Amino acid sequence: MAVSGSKDGTVIVHTIRQGHFIRTLHASGDSCIPAKISGLQVGMEGHIVVQLSQEKCSNRKGNFSINVYSVNGCLLSCFTTEEQITALHLVSEYIILGTIHGSLHIQDLFSLDDLITPLALKVPVRCVSVTKELSHILVGLDDGKLIVVGAGKPEEVRSRQFSRRLWTSTRRITQVSSGETEYNPTARVGK
Are 105 and 114 in contact (CB under 8 A)? Predict the structure, then answer.
């Protein structure tokens, strides 16, 4: 299935092979406050994750939200925050969010509950991805740095262990290891 989002909060779902219309989702719901879609992700099982940003309103908190829909278009859960969400990545049953304030959230897809305490990276997050082996989260920051977040100590991490270790281990929560690297094109090798 293919999905597209618009400035008015509408998500249109089509078949990917023939392009036939399937349904329209109104992500802003019954809200009279206009919301525009700033991000979309489709899971392997057809779950649709919609990232919304609502126009600023002085008396309303939570200008940014995430909605999760089933393959049939039913709203499963929603999450509202005051932090602008700048990066979104869907991995099987989990959502990884990065914010403008430098927080990295790992949430359950169905309940949108935080699975671990959000990691404070102190710099706005620009993009989030997960390695092919599902062993590490790659976080691109606004200052050009790449943060690599792994499940536990590096010597404990094996390929395909990430999802089980990162999402379900309470012991691991305090052991998230992260390192950073910078690309410096002006540095010369062998000075």
Answer: yes
103 closest CA partner among 86, 91, 115, 90:
86
Q: What is the pLDDT of residue 151?
A: 62
Contacts by 178-185 with C-beta closer than 8 Å and gap 24+? Answer: 178/119, 178/147, 178/148, 178/149, 178/150, 179/147, 179/148, 180/145, 180/146, 180/147, 180/148, 181/145, 181/146, 181/148, 182/144, 182/145, 183/144
Question: Domains of the chain, with CATH numbers?
Answer: 1-82 (2.40.10), 85-191 (2.40.10.480)
In this predicted structure, the answer to whether residue 166 has a pLDDT above a threshold of 70 is no
pTM: 0.73
